[in-house]
# Entry
Amino acid sequence: MSSPAYQRPLNWLILIWSLLTLILITAGALTAGNHAGLSIPDWPLAYGKLVPPFIGGIRFEYTHRVIATLVGCISIVVAIWLQRTDPRRWMRRLGWIGVAGVIVQGILGGLTVLMYQPPWITAAHASVAQLFFLLTLGLAVFTSRGWLAEIPQREDLARPSLLTLGIGLTAAIWAQIILGAAYRHNALGVVPHMLGAVVVSVLAIWLAGQLLARHGEVAALRRPAWWLLALLLVQVGLGIWTYFVKLATLQAPQPPTERIALATLHLVGGSVLLGMAFWITLRLRRYLLVNPWGILQRQKERSLA
# Structure
């Protein structure tokens, strides 16, 4: 099988696709924050039309749907482009998984409207959106010049491996986003979300600290560790601020603008933190030799015996 060549147009298209997915998540958060999810009672049309009156909550829900349609169209283009030009079978499969993800999200979004926003479907819709965002980010990395270039790999013999910590942190942030979505849609209380924040913070600090201690001299690994800590600090601050503003405005007839803005920023911040953890994990996979179950350590010990 031939090695894949770097294709700048494809890579840039996937980057735009990933950015649009983050914007779509933002639009969904604004729709939920403004209680506009049921402002358009039918699906896939809007009041039986392609373009409804642009008033009230309809503005948020309809914009959300338009961006989702654009993301879906790009998904099809990316899948066909990868199918025709990328020699890596797993990449071609990921492209079509992206198309399947758009279909699943469309169905979940439609059920959210048609079933009047049951909490479990709404939380599932928000959670799958994060997985789809990670897929687009992964495809952007896998088609980048840095991933396709020859890079000397370093050993990572300590336990737990940095790759293990990266995978654990990414999974923990995704679970935390699920807990946050369940809390926001009144399916769970705030305590599980707070406990999840503690777990994520410990894992993030652990990963960043170990990364700096083991490979701090490598700029490509050192800088992401500091970015991760900075994002964590911002996200924790936003979470605390959002919670106290919500407590202070519970009796308001409509969610005030400050509360909506903070909740949206907090949700988007969670997505960015999730993307950062996933990006670091992929970078660790690229720059470090994989060390499952201490195999490298045992091989090194045998060679020195």
User: Anything to note?
Assistant: The chain has a mean pLDDT of 89. Residues 155 and 289 are 5 Å apart (CA to CA).
